Amino acid sequence: MPWFHGKISGPEAVGKLQPAEDGLFLVRESIRHPGDYVLCVSTSGEVMHYRVIYKDNKLTIDHIQYFYNLIDMIEYRLCLSPPAGWLLDISKLTLGENIGEGEFGAVYQGEYLGQRVAVKTIKCDVTAQAFMQETAVMTKLQHKNLVRLLGVILHKGLHIVTELMSKGNLVNFLRTRGRSVVNSVQLLRFALDVCEGMEYLESKKLVHRDLAARNILVSDDYLAKVSDFGLTKLDSKVSDSIKLPVKWTAPEALKKEKFSTKSDVWSYGVLLWEIFSYGRLPYPKMSLKEVKEKVDGGYRMEAPDDCPPGVYALMTSCWEQEPRRRPTFHKVREKLEREMGKHSPGPGSELRDRIGSGSGS
């Protein structure tokens, strides 16, 4: 389990929980009492150490309160101290209708302190801990092309609260509107929006690892924003338990589980293909096994119908086999801006207005 750190000392545990953001935790085996386990939780700038007692299939640290899982135990400990800025108060949240199923649980529409929000629920301890480790970082990330994380709520699992993106994900947005509503300049705008969000993550040395049109959300005013960057890591290795999205994952990430900004650039090339094919599934009619074998052998997807040659050239540069030969997101943005200059619309044809008038919601 990612939160289990084996037989380490108290000071070592404190070192691993730096910077000491509220809610970070780990479990270690006690050096002083071999066979016993210690829960170390960061609260109000300090790391507290609690001996975990396992009894009758339940966990306790005081023989008063008993818990069925670690996340509930963490919630209890954190509620004893004032919540940090990113730890939100469940009493101020109103949950509305279910608006979708995410990879780790249901997603609901809701309201928090008068703001419309989306709430992702995560029941699994391991996944919840992985998200909690990253949440403190995510709340500090602010960019117009990243979905804003407002904070988390610990209550019977983990609830991740973000701004609500009313137009849904980019795949469905493009599929349900098509060429009659969205023209190539608007496609370029979406591509540029995503690139700017990724350039910002690149500047922070953060890696997305699952960049795809399904993880791009569209706002009320037709701005595309990158979402689900909650498991971002720098030069990270992914655990075997996470299934990789083969059609979007760079060859070196599939083979060596090596993720970097350059593997994100590969995924961005596939996302560009999705945008300019109006939401088609990449590598049409090919099995995952075929995709792996053919891509390794040098195969690359053909340009989508009516795709500008400059955009297709950009896609193929993102799909260089050698990661170092792929452009940075900064370079990609410069090329897209040049492409946008070639396709700029005439006066009075603001495309975001046209999409709004041509498609309802």
Automatic annotation (TrEMBL):
It is an enzyme of class 2 (transferase). One of its GO terms (molecular function) is ATP binding. Its EC number is 2.7.10.2. Residues 3-76 form the SH2 domain. Its main location: cytoplasm. It catalyses: L-tyrosyl-[protein] + ATP = O-phospho-L-tyrosyl-[protein] + ADP + H(+). It comes from the Eukaryota. PROSITE patterns: PROTEIN_KINASE_ATP (PS00107), PROTEIN_KINASE_DOM (PS50011), PROTEIN_KINASE_TYR (PS00109), SH2 (PS50001). This is Tyrosine-protein kinase. It comes from Echeneis naucrates.
